[in-house]
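Protocol step 4 of 6.
Sequence for Fe-S cluster assembly ATPase SufC (Devosia rhodophyticola) entered exactly as in the expression construct, tag removed. Do not edit the line below.
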Amino acid sequence: MTNPILEIRNLHARIEDREILKGVNLAIPAGELHAVMGRNGSGKSTLSYVLAGKEDYEITEGEVLLDGVDLLGMEPNERAAAGLFLAFQYPIEIPGVATMTFLKAAMNAQRKSRGEGEISTPDFMRAVKEAGASLNIDASMLKRPLNVGFSGGEKKRAEVLQMALLAPKMCILDETDSGLDIDALQVVSKGVNALRSEQRSMLVITHYQRLLNHIVPDVVHVFSDGRIVESGDKSLALQLEAKGYADFDSEPA
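Step 5 output, structure tokens:
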């Protein structure tokens, strides 16, 4: 059996004096999309922040391997270069930086980390046009400062565009359905589904089953009180929608 793309072993993390992750165990093989569902405050977004290397979180126990390599020993930019991508619940605005400029800088940073030369302008423009076509992204949107004045749908489409251009091996989508109407959700989901491949793994974090109607997971995990307490197929998401999370509170892992 090949190693999982992402493997989390007994991960504990705290912020200040509060423990949030309390022994997370998770393995995602290549080609699979896993969903983590849990009520607000269960720690599922903290998991995404810890994986991406956000400051302020202290890892007190456990390890995380990305394609067999220690992830927690890397700086955030090193994690990105190694193939990790986090799509934020609330993408930040960056005034003064055109979206196209940001995308090209991100691509070239990745290429540099791999020892490759900078992408040519024609190749970059072609890649953006191809990746943006299915996301309903037009040239005017790309000329605007990154996420400034973007609608919720535009912000999420811009993130999926980044994901398509950077081609990471491990994608983490933190509540990517937040702020999306049904039309935007369908467009974003179509973009995410187009990126599913045998070489790439995905982790989708949400507390609504509706997202999983559009991005159908291979495995669903229930997150409660800082750890995974139940795993199953997509029918588990329907069970959560019908009954809520109370049945899973304080269950042993």
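Step 6, annotate. The chain has one domain: 6-248.
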